[in-house]
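General statements about sequence and structure are easier to judge against a single worked case. For one protein, we set the task of working out the structure tokens from the amino acid sequence alone. The sequence in question and its structure tokens are set out directly beneath this paragraph.
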Amino acid sequence: MLQFILEPAQQCVIGNCARMMPLTVSGTKTQTFVHFSKALKVAPLILPENRQGKSWYATSRLTADGKTLIVDTAPWRLDMLQQGPGKQITQIRLTRGGNKEGNQ
């Protein structure tokens, strides 16, 4: 399995993103690996999107140590949402380089 480091733009959309950031991203043609500096107890909800703005369902799982989220797709944009203490929602958006022209 060929794995490569991705350098997507990282944007804190809402919430306390310090709980999930900093992070690094790597991937293959079929999977994305999000590596967190601090372990998460619960996997975030993921919302993958292609360059045309279409979303789809993709499975994901948090590794046993809680520091790596494995997403079974390689989207152009990936939103991660997680509910924190006090039911505060955190949203982080990862977007691969380039613009929406061209395909995923």
Summary: Residues 6 and 47 are 18 Å apart (CA to CA). The longest strand covers residues 77-83. The chain is about 0% helix and 45% strand.
